[in-house]
Each structure stands twice: as C-alpha cells, then as structure tokens.
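Folding Problem: From Residues to Backbone Shape
Fields: amino acid sequence; protein backbone structure tokens
RECORD BEGINS BELOW THIS LINE
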Amino acid sequence: MVHPLIFREWERRLAALPEEKSPTIVISDIPLLIEGGSQKRFDLVILVYATPEQQLQRLTARNGCTPEEARLRLRAQLPIDAKLPHADYVIDNSFSREETRKRTEEVWIELEKLHNRKLLSVK
C-alpha cells in the first residue's frame, strides 16, 4: 500500500506548482494505487494493461529476477483483470509500441478535452 509519507510528499509537490501557470494536468505513476483504495484521491485512473503472461515476462527481463520471484511479486498485487473496473481509461500495452503510443495519445487528447471543459479538478 502507498505509505502516507509518500502521499504527503506528493501533496507537497502539487502545492509547490507555480501559481502563475494555468491549471495543469498531473499524471502520477502509483504502484498499488487500487490495492490501497487510494484511487478515490484522483479525478481519473488510467490503467496500463498487459496480460499476466506479459507482466511475468517483462518483470523478469526488467528486474533480472527469476520467474518464481516475479510470480510472488505479482501475487502480492491485485490481478490486472480485477483492476479494469476501477479504470476510467485503459492503455493496452500488450501490442506493439506504436499501438501503445497511439492509444496513449488518444487518452491524452481526452484528458485535454476534460481539462479544457474544467471537468478535472485543479489546484
């Protein structure tokens, strides 16, 4: 779960954003956000999705751990498919980088539209 000290630091950094700038879209990459029930703190949740098999493969490649260590780490999390109902947007990262980039750009455009219509909270 996300430690309260980390959230306090996150809130401090948000408060430190320059006032003279127009309201900003802030994206936070927070592991275990849904597991800790902290998604309520945010206007929207964007889930980057990869299949469980891809998660295992990527975790072992990125972290240099064994498949069993990766499985244990993934078991400590809510399964990715159980996170889907909590997401306002899903970026499917199980295809090519170009397809992932395209979907990310689509989500960004949607965020800008919401921001411009003042449907996202501001500082």
